[in-house]
């Protein structure tokens, strides 16, 4: 079969791209190894995602947000602090003229909102569960061999999209290497129930062994992201719930009173993965396949969603042409140029934050403490961070501006 676009990876980013392309009267294939509602699905799992306002607008313009809005918890304020230091910073949505700084959504809810849209779209062919066994690049197309329930078949596409994660096989098939920096840290992710209501405040707290975050959820619960050294994480995973809560309490303090309950804990190793290029031949690389970030600032999926919005807009612009070719060198070159500054700025900010707050030197600790105080007193700095987190500088995609692609 022949397609205009083949998306390898039907996780959060790949599925969103499929929904974005659905109205464009294109032939689109989506290839995903694990069904979105399966327990083993690594994208739509127990984790939650903090969506920026820009991401919320993209999903809203695509028609996905109505299925999520009642399930999403707004973030009204953000509180940043460092354990053992007096400096802190606060960002208030109302001071920025916003109803919320962002929204916390369960990854499984996001999958449930996206995948039904894919199955109902006439122009989309879903191969799931299925795996890509071979990719062969040609001048005018890409041939993809698919293994599905022991049977192999092939499809051709003018453009193949690598949305298959940080260890992207498609990226490798096109000879694109990736830089990997192992942070030697593990994030333990779970939910906790505090004694006091969170008042829709998201907390980011830096500790000597790594950052921790508490994000507001429905029912007064919070998502906890606790970053530890790899060795410490192994020990902590073996602790009882009472021991675990006591350690989190020691690190976080009593802003929310006592932590009463904790859910199932899941460990995730942390690293920075950065593809050396965002396209090659008739392949474009998006989401975690292009950049896998530390969760410290919650920018990973939001950055990937802007990859989607930018690519979908460029494909839409050419879809109306008589000789439309979504895999043309010109389109991919324009995509690369468009995404370069946003991608570079977010990677540098996230990695710099991890490095700065991991530095044990006393002089550095004093400087970052003063930096938090200064940030708290400078509205322009808060506005600049808000623009960075939402991709609000440079060329903003139509979907992020509330403008439909059709």
What does this structure look like?
- By secondary structure, the chain is α+β, with helices and mostly antiparallel strands.
- It has helices at residues 12-21, 53-61, 107-119, 169-173, 230-237, 241-252, 300-319, 329-358, 362-377, 379-390; strands at residues 2-8, 28-31, 48-52, 73-75, 77-82, 88-92, 102-106, 124-127, 131-137, 142-148, 151-162, 178-194, 201-207, 210-216, 222-229, 259-262, 266-275, 279-280, 283-285, 291-292.
- The chain has a domain at 2-73 and 105-180 and 272-361 and 392-401: FAD/NAD(P)-binding domain (3-Layer(bba) Sandwich).
- It contains 10 helices and 20 strands.
- The strands form 3 sheets. Strands 5, 6, 12, 13, 14, 15, 16, 17 and 20 form a 9-stranded mixed sheet that branches.
- Strand 18 (279-280) and strand 19 (283-285) form a beta hairpin.
- Helix 1 packs parallel to helix 7 (300-319) and helix 7 packs antiparallel against helix 8 (329-358).
- The two termini are 26 Å apart.
- Residues 359-378 have low confidence and may be disordered.
Quaternary structure of the protein: single chain
Which class best fits the helix and strand makeup? alpha+beta
CATH topology of the domain at 2-73 and 105-180 and 272-361 and 392-401: FAD/NAD(P)-binding domain
Poorly predicted regions are 359-378
CATH superfamily of the domain at 2-73 and 105-180 and 272-361 and 392-401: FAD/NAD(P)-binding domain
| Overall average residue pLDDT | 88
Helix amount:
25-40%
Shape: globular
Contiguous helical run count: 10
SSE succession? EHEEHEEEEHEEEEHEEEEHHEEEEEHHHH
Main beta-sheet annotation: 9 strands, mixed
Radius of gyration: 21 Å
User: What is the architecture of the domain at 2-73 and 105-180 and 272-361 and 392-401 at the second tier of CATH?
Assistant: 3-Layer(bba) Sandwich
Distance between the termini: 26 Å
Strand content: 25-35%
Specify the CATH class of the domain at 2-73 and 105-180 and 272-361 and 392-401: Alpha Beta
The beta-strand count equals: 20
């Amino acid at each position: 079969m022949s397609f205009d676009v083949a998306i390898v990876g039907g996780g959060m980013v790949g599925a969103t791209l499929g929904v974005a392309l659905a109205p464009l009267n294109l032939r689109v294939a989506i290839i995903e190894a694990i069904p979105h509602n399966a327990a083993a699905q690594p994208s739509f799992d127990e984790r939650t995602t903090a969506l920026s306002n820009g991401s919320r607008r993209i999903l809203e313009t695509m028609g996905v947000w109505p299925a999520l809005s009642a399930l999403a918890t707004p973030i009204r304020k953000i509180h940043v602090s460092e354990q053992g230091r007096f400096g802190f910073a606060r960002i208030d949505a109302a001071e920025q003229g916003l109803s919320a700084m962002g929204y916390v959504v369960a990854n499984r809810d996001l999958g449930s909102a996206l995948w039904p849209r894919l199955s109902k779209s006439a122009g989309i062919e879903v191969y799931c569960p299925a795996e890509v066994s071979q990719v062969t690049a040609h001048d005018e197309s890409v041939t993809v061999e698919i293994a599905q329930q022991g049977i192999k078949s092939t499809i051709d596409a003018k453009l193949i999209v690598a949305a298959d994660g940080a260890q992207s096989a498609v990226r490798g098939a096109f000879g694109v290497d990736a830089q990997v920096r192992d942070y030697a840290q593990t994030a333990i992710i779970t939910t906790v129930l505090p004694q006091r209501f969170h008042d829709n405040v998201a907390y980011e707290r830096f500790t000597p062994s790594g950052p921790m975050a508490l994000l507001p959820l429905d029912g007064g619960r919070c998502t906890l992201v606790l970053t530890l050294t790899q060795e410490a994480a192994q020990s902590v995973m073996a602790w009882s719930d009472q021991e675990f809560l006591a350690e989190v309490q020691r690190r976080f303090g009593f802003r929310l009173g006592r932590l009463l309950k904790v859910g199932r804990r899941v460990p995730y190793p942390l690293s920075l993965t950065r593809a050396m290029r965002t396209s090659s031949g008739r392949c474009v690389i998006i989401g975690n396949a292009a950049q896998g970030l530390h969760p410290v600032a919650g920018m990973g999926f939001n950055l990937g969603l802007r990859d989607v919005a930018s690519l979908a807009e460029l494909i839409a612009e050419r879809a109306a042409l008589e000789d439309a070719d979504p895999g043309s060198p010109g389109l991919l070159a324009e995509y690369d140029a468009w995404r370069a500054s946003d991608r570079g700025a977010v990677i540098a900010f996230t990695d710099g934050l991890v490095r700065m707050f991991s530095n044990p030197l006393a002089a550095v600790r004093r400087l970052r403490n003063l930096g938090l105080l200064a940030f708290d007193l400078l509205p322009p700095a808060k506005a600049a961070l808000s623009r960075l987190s939402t991709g609000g500088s440079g060329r903003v995609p139509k979907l992020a501006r509330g403008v439909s692609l059709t």
